[in-house]
Amino acid sequence: MKRGKCCGDKNTVGSIRAMLMMLWMLLMVCVFSSVNSISLKASEEQRKIVTVGFTESTNFLERKENDEMSGLAYDYLQKISYYTDWEYRYVYGEWNEITEKFYNGEIDVLPGLSKTPEREEKALFSDYPMGTENYYIYVRADDPLAPTREGSLRCVTIGVNENTIQQGMLERWNKEGGFAADIRYYPGNRSRMAAFDANETVATVSTDFSVKPEMNMVPIALVGGSDYYLAVAKKRKDLLDDLNRAQGAITSIEPGFTKELLEKYYKGSAVSRLLSREEDTLVKRNPRIRIGYFDNYMPFSGTDKNGKTQGILTDLVDQMLKQLRLEKRVSPIYRAYGSTQEMIAALKRDEIDVAFPIENNMAQAEKDGVFLSSELVKTSMFLVFDGTYDESVKNRIAVIRGNRFQENYVRRNFPEAEIVFCDDIYSGFDMVKSGAADSIAINELRKDALMSSFRYRDMQSVPLPEGRNICMAVKRGETLLLSLIERGITGLPDNYAVTSTYKYIGKNGEFSLEEFIYANIYGTFAVALLLAGVLIGGMVYIVISRKKRRDLDRMAHIDNTTGIKNRRSFDEAVVQIGNEPVSGDFVFLSADLNELKQVNDTMGHEAGDELIIAAAHCLNSIMEPYGGVFRVGGDEFAAIGYIPREARQAVFDRIRENCESWIGSCGQKLSISVGYVAAEEIPDPTLKDLRVEAERRMYEAKTKYYRETGHDRRGARSGLNK
Prior knowledge:
D-Maltodextrin-Binding Protein, domain 2, 28 strands, membrane, six-stranded mixed β-sheet, seven-stranded mixed β-sheet, 6 domains, globular, alpha/beta, about 20% strand, about 45% helix
């Protein structure tokens, strides 16, 4: 009996322990659930909901029928959210309505607000402005007032947004100038532009960037300008602190961000083509502009057999005059010079007004006493040689007499090389073929022109690390002439200079009987001994010339190092697609090799070339079914095509895996930074929009790579790994 009782006690104790264990487990589940719930709630609370005042303005803030948004301010807001994790809620309305809600605290942030003492009492302003804008009075391009200046605005009706800084500046301009204009006030852009379109006002006030060329409006008077900000509601000091930190980070990490936005949305605005009063006076006093050029430097500049100037110089000047509507007021006069030094000397003697082409080198420009324009052409440099590449091709390098850039480039990049001077580019190539020189350094455009010819088609080339940037020059002190040139450059279509070279490259690559005889001299001599030599020679010439045309076309469009399409093919594809929005599954990919300079310096250029070829084959083998892959620079690639959404990730994973698994003959590994973007990610994007975004993502990937690996982009290890 006692044993049974003992056993019963043990069973009871076991049951109690089991119950306690179950209770403990339930308690732990409740605790963990509560902690998880609190964590999720805290995470949601960390993401701030920010209300944004949205008043539509061309190029600045726009909303389409499908509620997709675009514009400089929209992109700016999105970039800020990347650093603050803000989540936006938009409040739409006219300017008056939105500003009233903002000052009342119903809206948290308002983009595009200028700072004044009065506004500083009602709103908070960040340490950094979003940008700077000017305010102009616009009329229609076909209005009789268009060719005139502000004096013609007396007593006309002018529309302006009320309660804006433009209003105060217009009123002051009207009073101080005694124009007696009839100023009419509107609550926002929509009503103001509606009145202008309905001819209720003769003129209207708007910013320098918010008028597109297709709007058929021209500015005729400047009334003022100011910085504008992403303003914060008075009660949201927490948002101001977030904003200042974000803007500081963007300024440090992405210093070119605001410039990219201006280029994206405001290039070629109506204001950039408006001559100042001083510039207009300069044109009236000097209806002829004398332009000096470096002769025998095709496709940039040269003289044809009839003594007429040719090359992209004439195309650039004609297009710039057309953009500024000066084609009937200004006549260009061209003068050829045999060297850069002669041309600079003529510029300083006032024999010419403008010199082209000039290297974009500020230090050299200061020594020469000239002002440089913005960059017109950017091109890669190549070392051209005959046979197999080795270090000996750098021993004797041909340089054209008078080509200061080429000579300085060789001395700077190959200080140990012997310079062998030649008369022109053709004699330079002939010296390399004959062995009188080991190589010649020329830019990519000239290389393509020469190596597409029959005589030089078997020559080889390797890319060089430093490219060439070409611009125009004026005599130091000619600030008005320089500003006039800058206006013309700003209005040029994208890649205009590069695409203009193609017709001249084609001329250099035309097949001729002389080239045929040069390349087949022994066969031609043998055939000449035969009675039917003339007939056979003619037939052979016809057959080979047809094949040559096909070969020339391929050589002009295929990169001879990698076998994929080259920069020319890419530029033609860009022109063919145009500026129309792309949609659907259209994808743009930008890629750039990592560590190429390190490989070149430590393993040699053959190992570097092997990397370039491997990257090209890796990209092309995977992307070819969907579109085209192009080599657009020394170690830069681009791809465009249509990739279905469901296949994209697999495609880009294969690219990454193929690159990671490749090992070269010298043990070098393949690493590329890739950025890609699909059309569906951006509202109504053009090819240019996709390219800018893809390149931005690619550079972010490259920065991340070098930060994580601890390597220096110049080829050395950073920190302790040096």
